[in-house]
Amino acid sequence: MRKNMSILYTDVPPLGTDDNNENFRDKFKEYFKASNKVEIATGYVSRNALELLNQMIKNQRISYIRLIVGMYYIDGMPESIYNTLIKLDNEWHSRNIGEVLIVRTFRYHGKCYLFSKNETPFAGILGSANLGAISLDAQTRRQYEISVSINGSQQLVQLERHIKDLQTKCSTSISSTPNIPIIRAENVQLRDIDHVQKVNSDEVNAYKDHLVGNTFEIPLKVPHDHNDPKLRGSNINVCYAKGRKREWWETEIIVSKKISEQPGYPEYSKPFMVVTDDGWKFKVWTCGDHNKNFYSKDNLKIMGYWLKGRLVAAGIVNAIDNVENDTEGKGLITEKMLEQYGKTTLSLTKIGQTTKDEEGNVLNVWLLSFLPSQMKEETNR
């Protein structure tokens, strides 16, 4: 006789699973493979799990996917998770295969997975495993979860009704939900980099109290999308230029004459110090014809570690170890990606103070900002 319920264990020593014990990850993939419609309601997610889920959807040709996340609207959502969920929601809507919802009425900490074939549920999973458990990473390898799989028709009807009520009574589309508190991710790429100093938030705010003059908004010149052949090997995408091989982190900013010739713009070939909105301090300069080049003085990668590092931390792009092998241009930064991040320009404002560099030279100080406009709540972590 078929069991209506079975326990799903986790293979974490010393409580490893054996031939008689089933585990959540394997059972999830088994049910997923047999489905063409999957509905998930979970408290938390991880980027690795979301990327794996999306790949599974493509591989299995799932016709419908609904993902409901439950703990973020009140507690705040990590920036990288927010951007990944927005990207998935847009992709699923464009393909007409599903949606991402967020619970707004309360902290929803349930973990429900419903699998259907031709609109008929045939299996479900309930238990302690958030969606992140489908992906093997440093945390899930050592975090023990226990769940149950269900196959009874009455239980599946109840689970289907619960997810439906959660969808219609408590949730809204993540893409149209206002005021989601965003937890801004810390960019760690500049840690322990020569010629870079960490600045605490009090010092950054003190500098902001001494801003003088106009703010120069410097557009980041990039292709519109991955199909746009223009600007694919320049500016922050200079690593994709033909000729000398460059690392992905190398970055140059090209500034138009319309900006560089404005009164008050930094002087040609005269180094100055920037303090960034997220608390870093490094030396930059402007040079080249018409004073068009703006980049980090001591190492071209410093500007990249700061700017591209923000996009990596935000979940917009993944760093590329070897650009020559990136034949699909996965590390290419586009205008659509910057728009999703929430800012397409660098903001440069002079500070009415000076500082000294490592050699004791007195330098002017400027505030450099790449803070996304959609940030409703800034919390460094």
Structural summary, described in words:
Residues 376-381 have low confidence and may be disordered. Helices cover 25% and strands 27% of the residues. The protein starts with a strand and ends in a 12-residue tail after the last strand. The chain has helices at 24-33, 47-60, 72-75, 79-94, 153-170, 201-208, 257-260, 300-313, 335-341, and strands at residues 5-9, 22-23, 37-42, 64-69, 77-78, 98-103, 111-117, 120-127, 147-150, 171-173, 182-183, 196-198, 211-219, 253-254, 272-276, 280-287, 293-296, 345-356, 362-369. The protein is built from 9 helices and 19 strands. With 381 residues, it is of the alpha+beta class.
Query: Regions with pLDDT < 50 over 5+ consecutive residues?
Result: 376-381
Backbone structural class:
alpha+beta
Q: Given the structure, what is the number of helices?
A: 9
Instruction: Provide the β-strand percentage band.
Output: 25-35%
Order of helices and strands: EEHEHEHEHEEEEHEEEHEEHEEEHHEE
- The radius of gyration computed from the alpha-carbon positions, rounded to a whole number of angstroms, is 25 Å
Taken from the alpha-carbon principal axes, the silhouette is elongated
* Major beta sheet summary: 9 strands, mixed
Tell me roughly what share of residues is in helical segments: 10-25%
Strand order of the largest sheet: 2-1-9-8-7-3-4-6-10
Q: Compute the number of strand runs.
A: 19
Distance between the termini: 52 Å
Mean pLDDT: 91
